Amino acid sequence: MYQTKIAGLGKYVPENVVTNDDLSKMMETNDEWITERTGIKERRHIKKGDGNSTAVMGVKAAKIAIERAGISKDDIDLIVFATLSPDYYFPGCGVQVQEMLEIDTCPALDVRNQCSGFIYGMSVADQFIKTGMYKNVLLIGSENHSGGLDFTTRGRSVSVIFGDGAGAAVLTRSDHNGEGILSTHLHSEGKHALELSLKGPSTEHWVPEIIAENPQGDDIPYYPYMNGQFVFKNAIQRFSEVINEGLQANGLEVSDIDMLIPHQANLRISQFVQQKFKLKDDQVYNNIQRYGNTTAASIPIALTEAWEEGKIKEGDIVVLAAFGSGFTWGSAIIKW
Ligand code: UT7
């Protein structure tokens, strides 16, 4: 059995900064509410005409990760792309990335696990590398949320939270035993699928049907719906469970954690988890204040920034954990 290590990381966020005050000009909201309930001060939104899309941002992050990994794009054996906001209903963004990177041909797999997408993708990549089937996997998490949100007061409880951006990692077969991804644990509970969802367009809600059912447009199933408090309660429980599960599987204690990178769902969720595990401020990385919740991109953006800032060193135990729509949740324990 081989082991998987992270050989390179990259991130990209659009230049266009949208502050809480900017949002308050579009809907009834304010900086105080958003800061108090979520910790978010600003986020990035794609601007029409700036050339960005979910796949394009993914490619920008990927190019940095590939360069830092010291490999060529032609060394990539598999692309795994995690997003809930693909450029097209089909095909997925993975094939767009393969084309944009000018890789002749390679398998490209799209992962549909929302906020847990990067950890799901990491687990898939890890299995392929461990068995020896592939050596280098390019894993991307990217989201263009701003294109699909309701920026009227009707959508404020969701739209103020989400931001655009992308993160990427090159996962590679490791030559040293004991380093790299020690474990991944994945879960889902589909009975709560609709508590955080976008119903249409889909085979149940095609566009003409949606328009016919909602002539006034006041209950529009092609804007995301979130039962915020229910999601919040489930998130704090599942984050804790899945971190403990990962630690136990590796015979590790909470005191072994050097850096926890939680999916950036809400600063209050991260703070709850931090307090529960009695971690110090410098043991938990948060950047939701600057980017909002970027769903599948949030962990790779945060991981890239933590690494760039020198907050992750060789030998560190790094814990990634996510929870989100599905419900889905997961953790990854990495020895850097
Ligand atoms: O990443 C995937 C996982 N996602 C999450 O983990 C998110 C989990 N949930 C949350 O983070 C929080 O539930 C939210 C941030 C979404 C909402 O915070 P909350 O403290 O649960 O607020 P609430 O939904 O209970 O709303 C409280 C009040 C309501 O007014 P009334 O009914 O009390 O008069 C809302 O209408 O705040 C109002 N409200 C707003 N006010 C100003 C909702 N959104 C806004 C807004 N600005 N943007």
Automatic annotation (TrEMBL):
Residue numbers annotated as active site: 115, 263, 293
Catalytic activity: malonyl-[ACP] + acetyl-CoA + H(+) = 3-oxobutanoyl-[ACP] + CO2 + CoA
Biological pathway: Lipid metabolism; fatty acid biosynthesis
Pfam families on file: ACP_syn_III (PF08545), ACP_syn_III_C (PF08541)
Region entry ACP-binding, spans: 264-268
Residues covered by the Beta-ketoacyl-[acyl-carrier-protein] synthase III N-terminal domain: 109-190
Signal peptide bounds: none
Domain Beta-ketoacyl-[acyl-carrier-protein] synthase III C-terminal: 247-336
Location in the cell: Cytoplasm
Enzyme category, top tier: transferase
Gene Ontology biological process terms, A to Z: fatty acid biosynthetic process
Gene Ontology MF terms: 3-oxoacyl-[acyl-carrier-protein] synthase activity; beta-ketoacyl-acyl-carrier-protein synthase III activity
A GO cellular component annotation in the UniProt record: cytoplasm
Entry's EC annotation: 2.3.1.180
The keyword Signal appears for this protein: no
Alphabetically ordered keywords of this record: Acyltransferase, Cytoplasm, Fatty acid biosynthesis, Fatty acid metabolism, Lipid biosynthesis, Lipid metabolism, Multifunctional enzyme, Transferase
Domain remark text: The last Arg residue of the ACP-binding site is essential for the weak association between ACP/AcpP and FabH.
NCBIfam families to which the protein is assigned, alphabetical: fabH (TIGR00747), PRK09352.1 (NF006829)
Record's function text: Catalyzes the condensation reaction of fatty acid synthesis by the addition to an acyl acceptor of two carbons from malonyl-ACP. Catalyzes the first condensation reaction which initiates fatty acid synthesis and may therefore play a role in governing the total rate of fatty acid production. Possesses both acetoacetyl-ACP synthase and acetyl transacylase activities. Its substrate specificity determines the biosynthesis of branched-chain and/or straight-chain of fatty acids.
Subunit composition and interactions: Homodimer.
HAMAP family (alphabetical): FabH (MF_01815)
PANTHER family in UniProt: 3-OXOACYL-[ACYL-CARRIER-PROTEIN] SYNTHASE (PTHR43091), BETA-KETOACYL-[ACYL-CARRIER-PROTEIN] SYNTHASE III, CHLOROPLASTIC (PTHR43091:SF1)
Protein family (similarity comment): Belongs to the thiolase-like superfamily. FabH family.
The protein's name in its UniProt record: Beta-ketoacyl-[acyl-carrier-protein] synthase III
Organism: Christiangramia gaetbulicola
